[in-house]
Amino acid sequence: MKEKNVQHEAEVLHQKKLVLENIKAQEEERKRIAVTIHDDIGNRLNILSLWLNNLDTKGDEVIKKNIYNQMSSLIDAARSISHSLYPVNLESVGFVLYVEELIANLSHKINISMQVMPGYGKKDIFVEVQLYRIIQEFTTNVIKHSTATDLWIYIKDYPQHMAVIISDNGQGFDYNLVKKGMGIKNIESRIKSMNAIHKWKSTLNKGSRLIILIPNNNELPNQNSLN
């Protein structure tokens, strides 16, 4: 029995490593494509836009305006595609500021407040990207499927792990009915990739809450910490 347990644990660990390697490979490929769109195509479009702005159209301002509008739309589309593939500027801007930028962009749709407790330290870029994606996915789901007016993000570092709590004041949901949806699956897949543990707390008509504990090392936090 001991040998079987050891073998089973080894197989589970191997599967976890394969999943993590697969997710990291996907993120690297997304990053490569996103950087290409952001740095190459985006810059080329900006240069064309500048040239167009200085183009002598001999008074035909209607043609110039139409072309300029189309160019602006292409630039916005390139930025949007790049950002959806990978948060290109997260590493240079920093996780907290990048999330604050997301909050500012969504402020016309929902009230979002974030509290990062003193002592927060920069994490591995893979962890920060996954966490950003989780916040983004959670927020998108709330805006699309909930009647929430407010959303809160709480982040605190502990000696052994980082705690992240995301909650809203919407209509809540029945986990068993939505767990197969892509939104929940994407969130839980990213949580697993960080070797983290999580817990959903949702009450109909009283909002929902997601608690995540992300280890600072390879050891999982105590499950009781989620209560």
Descriptors:
HATPase_C_sf, Heat Shock Protein 90, two-component regulatory system, 5 strands, five-stranded mixed beta sheet, HATPase_dom, 7 helices, kinase, 227 residues, transferase, alpha+beta
Kindly describe this structure.
The protein has 227 residues and is of the alpha+beta class. The protein has two domains: 85 residues, no CATH class; 134 residues, 2-Layer Sandwich (Heat Shock Protein 90), CATH 3.30.565.10. Helix content is 57%, strand content 17%. Strands 1-2-3-5-4 form a five-stranded mixed beta sheet, covered by helices on one side. Helix 1 runs antiparallel to helix 2, helix 4 packs parallel to helix 5 and helix 5 runs antiparallel to helix 7. The protein is globular. The model has no long low-confidence stretch (mean pLDDT 81).
